[in-house]
Amino acid sequence: MRKRRILRLLLISFGTGILVLLGLFAVAWAMTPIPDTTQKQATAQGSVIYYRDGKSVLARQGIDRRLVELAKVPPHVRQAVIAAENRSFYEDAGVSIKGTGRAIWSTVTGQQLQGGSTITQQLVRNYYSGLSQERSVTRKFKEILIAMKVDQSKSKDWVLEQYLNTIYFGRGANGIQSAARAYFGKDVGELTVSEGAYLAAVIQQPSRFADPKGADLAAAEARWRWVINAMGQTGALTPQQVAAEKFPALAAPKKPFQLKGQARYMLQQVTDELNRRGYSDEEINSGGLKIVSTFDKKLMAAAERAVKDVLPDNTPKKVRTGLAAVDPKTGEVVAFYGGDPKRYDYDNAFSAKVMAGSTFKPYTLAAALNNGFDLSTRVNGNSPLRVASAEEPIPNDSGRSYGQIDLVRATQNSVNTAFVDLGQKVGLDKVAETAEAAGIPADQLEQQKTAASFPLGVSSISAVQNASGFATFANKGVHMETHVLKSVTDSTGRKDVVNPISTRVISEQAAADTTYAMEQVVKYGTGTAARLYDRPVAGKTGTTDESKSVWFNGYTPQLAVAVNMFRDDNETVTIPGYGTQFGGSLPAQIWRAFMTEAMAGKPVEEFPEPSDYGYSYDYSVPDRGDDVPQQEYTPPVNPDASSSPEPEFSQPPSTDPPATQAPDDRLDDQPEQTAPPVTQAPEQPSTDADTGTGDNRGRPTG
């Protein structure tokens, strides 16, 4: 009787224990829902940025993953993964009792931790939020519960598809599609049985099998053979197929994607514009975007070549050169040169802003031609010129007087007093409005736009901004918003094409007349070094006081390009063997070298005819005896001020401090003297200005 009572107690205790466990399990089941969020890294797809052709990769951002539908994964690849990782996948309830028991026992006893997770469990662990990677009984139990619920609520094909897109395969590849590209250079749909089996084998030890050699290669081949045999055991392959399969040839692993040369600057500009257009960094890094930039791969190389081929090897390291090329009809920045990214944190084309010098004079000319003046309008070219708003008279270089001079000769000879007088006649507010509408940010003009010398280019601008402004003249007076993005396609295939803002700045005739005046600069004036003998060119040189920044801006109907040179210590730009630089020297030569390559094979397009109203074409061929090159003197904006602002490097553009001196141009090969532009040192942007005398000590060079 006593034994029976003990047995009864044991049975009752055991039953009670079972009921308690079932109750606890029920409570745990009820309190463990399927997480409603996924891990960001589980589904993140990196974005790819392309050159303008949409094929050549410029850069990759974020995780290497490309989501693929299960239907696009060949059956033999799916079967290989199932044979390697979970043969009972289509029959089990999301967990393997045997495997889970083995894993829990090894964890509890402290023995070597073993796997045993099903495909569903692996997915739960890597896909859903809220589960840590810690190997503990609690975490394992929670994983089991969620796996069982997922198995009940989701189809097996859904689970397998998410698993294949989530799992890491080594070589930086996440998901089966990226793995196929990384190991075999093909899409997943093109994988052979042998190749699919290798990817299934890699899942076990992705780092070891990513690029196996020696003992690792032997281990990889053994694991691959095991997968092939397993496929035979599951019936996925016949014995004959198993015997016939041979170890696949692996593609050489690609080195991690590195940004070289100008690509770093290109990526920065693309990212900045994406941000401005509402794309967050998270979307860029994990949204699987296909981003097509405006940059032309060949023209980018041509820009770099032009700079490096023209500049001598002994060019001082402190001398910086920027180049920017803009398509006038679209506003697309098709090419630029921003300097050596290993030496500079900020590029010379977008971020560096230096005083525009006489390259600003065409904005004054355009404003006048758009407000009732014409090319035959005569302005005061005498020196000095007294203006009520200026404390001191404004002179031309060497005090040379031109008398009453028409706007064509004023532009060709870059006569300071003529443009100061023209600015007073048309109104400085209209000059500022024209420059702003042509793409020069208002905050970069604000502090100088009331100065009498404003038309002489005392504001600091970037190469891209100046190229964009001149593109307005090339595009018949219409400014197209400058941009570096052509289109963005998201992971669902929705394509967002960039449509730039179009602004009518000046009339077509005003643009044609502005262009005509600048054609004379290249034909007979300071810009002859930029001539392209197979097509017309319009352009303008610019050199600031003591040649602290030098420019050449020019365009054909198809392309507008700006080139500048300056020093990051705000000293005179001097090249050993070439002497002090001016806009018409090395900058014009760089411009010509680039445009010669950029225009090769392009049809020759003519500029629109200039207006003949009140203008005699006799002026189209100037009297060379009258146009002997002269140096120009640049008067200060504020005669009492003695500071000369340094080049500014900003990201994004910032307001420049007030300029203290006005720039000017020289004739033919003569230097143009202007005050240096406001700048900031690349390493630590600053608006502090160095002091300078602002006097005219330049000497003409041959």
UniProtKB/TrEMBL annotation:
GO terms for molecular function: penicillin binding; peptidoglycan glycosyltransferase activity; serine-type D-Ala-D-Ala carboxypeptidase activity. One of its GO terms (cellular component) is outer membrane-bounded periplasmic space. Coiled coil: none annotated. SUPFAM superfamilies: beta-lactamase/transpeptidase-like (SSF56601), Lysozyme-like (SSF53955). InterPro entries: Beta-lactam/transpept-like, Glyco_trans_51, Glycosyltr_51/Transpeptidase, Lysozyme-like_dom_sf, PBP_transglycosylase, PCN-bd_Tpept. Residues 642-653 have a biased composition (Low complexity). Gene3D superfamilies: Biosynthetic peptidoglycan transglycosylase-like, DD-peptidase/beta-lactamase superfamily. PANTHER family: BINDING PROTEIN TRANSPEPTIDASE, PUTATIVE-RELATED, PENICILLIN-BINDING PROTEIN 1A. This is Membrane peptidoglycan carboxypeptidase.
